[in-house]
Amino acid sequence: MTVPARPDVRPLNPNFSSGPCAKRPGWTVNALAGTPVGRSHRARIGKSRLAEVLTRSRAILGLPDDYRIGIVPASDTGAVEMALWSLLGERGLDILAWESFGEGWITDVTKQLRLTDVRTIRADYGRLPDLSQVDFDRDVVFTWNGTTSGVRVPDGDWIPDDRKGLVIADATSAVFAMDIPWHKTDVVTWSWQKVLGGEGAHGMLVLSPRAVARLESYKPAWPLPKIFRMTKGGKLIEGIFEGDTINTPSMLAVEDQIDALRWAEEVGGFPALKARSEANLAAVSSWVERASWAAFLAEDPKIRSCTSMCLVIKAPFFLALPAEDRAAAARRIASLLDKEGIAHDIAFYRDAPPGLRIWGGATIETSDIEALTPWLDWAFAQVEQEYAARV
User: What residue spans of 250-300 are helical by DSSP H?
Assistant: First the structure.
């Protein structure tokens, strides 16, 4: 068996992690030079920076004027939990899962909130559930893009405009890269660390007028932690959606997000961000068509993610291995590329089928994806030879 020669071209940026994700092209720490460090986030300068994140995000994403947008604690996880704890229980719930994060939300609503009128609609990794099963007279919770499976919903056509329940979408690895039909959603969440390559710890929460009405008319049966409370005296706390955050944010992270949003505007706004991610998917797809050993975990092209691109290994030697050896072999490929400084953090998620996961969000240059793919072939051949030598 012949191992291909080491490729001559290397990615300029080897950071292909699915979170935290690569910084925008050209980023240096000097982007944070204007941070009002040592100042209160409630001072005029701090609130103005927080408000800038909100206004620039709103404009780039094209949010409807009557939708609220706020900065909340604890990344996307915190934003989703705020929505689940504050809004659910008023009516029955349909909750979808086709990867680990969706399963996590199922655990929360059944084991922590202990809701009883819950229908779980599941699919295996690499597939979508039957979306026609969803009853929109009930509340609905789902992930727009499955970060650990590389599977996204293809569009929002399956969500009716005349729904009675609320639609709550965890869209952390979809926002800024995929079309979100805002009028078909009531709660959308994401974090700064994904498509724009921001810093961790801060979440974003978008609420429709219907979600606000639920918050103001419904009181959950369980106590709410302080960082989840969005109403006071039965009225929405508007300050949360004007830059008056619930807890103390990192102004360095805020400044970094402003820098990322300005970059997004400079490259052409949402259409350009989406195009950059789709170009990265196209580059990986072109390579997969040529590769004899790799395939997308998502077999259906219509549901393949353009951000978290998940691959499986279909080589006969690999499929003949015991399960634990398949996982080890996949990690060995990722480890070789990490050691070479070619690609960091591209091993499969721990609960997913063994393979590789390559981030293709808007901060990734397509030229780096194209430079990576010959190295994937090189690393696979190295591992195949290592395992052949053991037989």
Answer: 251-267, 269-290
CB 199 within 8 A of CB 252: yes
pLDDT interval class at 1 (50, 70, 90): low
Q: Are 364 and 370 in contact (CB under 8 A)?
A: no
Q: Enumerate the domain spans of the chain.
A: 29-265, 269-388
Stretch 338-343: mean pLDDT: 98
The yes-or-no answer to whether 29-265 and 269-388 have a common fold is no
Model's pTM, two decimal places? Answer: 0.97
- Residue written as token pair 């970094």: 256
CA dihedral 376, 299, 306, 94 (to 10 degrees): -140
CATH domain 29-265 topology = Aspartate Aminotransferase; domain 2 (3.40.640)
Q: How confident is the model at residue 2, as a pLDDT?
A: 73
Give the span between the Cα atoms of 291 and 296, in whole angstroms: 11
> What are the residues facing 146 on neighbouring strands?
151
Instruction: Return the structure tokens found at 184.
Output: 């078909």
Could you write out the DSSP letters of every residue in 142-208? EESEETTTTEE---STTS-TT-SS-EEEE-TTTTTTS---GGG-SEEEEETTSTT---SSEEEEEE-
Domain 269-388 belongs in CATH node 3.60.21.10: no
Nearest Cα neighbor of 71 from 244, 251, 263 is: 244
**Residue 228, token pair as written in the block:** 């989840």
Alpha-carbon distance 362 to 306, whole Å? 9
Taking a C-beta distance cutoff of 8 angstroms, is the pair 25, 367 a contact?
A: no
- Enter the tokens of residue 10: 């290397």
Rounded CA separation 169/134 (Å): 14
pLDDT of residue 388: 85
> Residue 285 in contact with residue 309, Cβ under 8 Å?
no
